[in-house]
TrEMBL record:
Main location: membrane
Name of this chain's protein: Glycosyltransferase
Location in the cell: Membrane
Record GO cellular component, one term: plasma membrane
Transmembrane segments: 229-253, 265-289
Record organism: Methylovulum psychrotolerans
Amino acid sequence: MKLSIVATLYHTAPYLNEFYARSSAVAQQQAGTDYEIILVNDGSPDNSLAIAIALTETDPRLRVIDLARNFGHHKAMMTGLAQSQGDRVFLLDSDLEEEPEWLPSFAEQLNTEAADMVYGVQCQRKGTRWEQLTGSLFYKTFRAVTGLAQPDNIVTARLMTRRYVNALLSHQERELNIGGLWITTGFKQCHQTVRKHATSPTTYSFRRKLSHFVTAVVSFSNRPLTATLYAGTLLTSTALAYIAYLSFCATALNTPPTSTSTLIAALWLFSGLIIFFLGIQGIYIATIFTEVKQRPYTIIRHIYQQPPATDSQHSDLQAEAIAAVRQMDVGELKAMLAARAVRD
């Protein structure tokens, strides 16, 4: 198979019909009829799954992977990549903030530079001033702590060769950060400047961003542990120097320290440092605990796909599917989903 287009579903119902139509059109331009579209439903609370299943009724090139619950964007993407079969895999978000029409320019650059991945980079991060600030801080801190040269303002959209995808899937992390895995997998990677649209509000709250950052750091760096060693050495050295100073004052100058507040402050400071360092090590222990269990990072509830249609049937069925879904209301889609579940 020449091409796989992979996207995830989460609060994407308003954009799904257009995304499917545009993705199908650009896939036909690039691969003729030898392509597939894979949509991974990451526990979307809206009717994205019902719309996607309705589209599979008349398009055998469309496959919908319904996960058992919401596992997270990165894990859903890895599941979609694992299900793909194309020689080239185009990964992007389905909310139309990233355009399916980027595929031809990505493919041209992939061929011209003999690369294994071409990914999109924004000139300026979209969102509010606070989102831009926290995003910039994330990338700078991530590079400083992990040593990985992750570019600023990268987007999900990227075109990858099959050998790169296979290498990416060989990683066995359970608490994964796909941004770091893209870099550590290696091969020749090139970027292309794109303009990402703002069609929907972000689903990444500050709490989720902070959790994402912690996962990224502990997954790719042991520098915090090294920093703990250096900090402990420094504190021990300064403590010994201070003890020597107090001993000198008591013996040579006959002025022993008697301030209770100094003792309380010292106990308070060192107690806090001990708890902080134990917290850092606790994060790593928690990560080890998760990894050794070797649980699957996603669970597939069901895969929806129709048997392959002939080439002469496909174009007519595809147009009929798009028109039919646009005329349905939510109730009809839910009824179709229920009927499909009974048949299965």
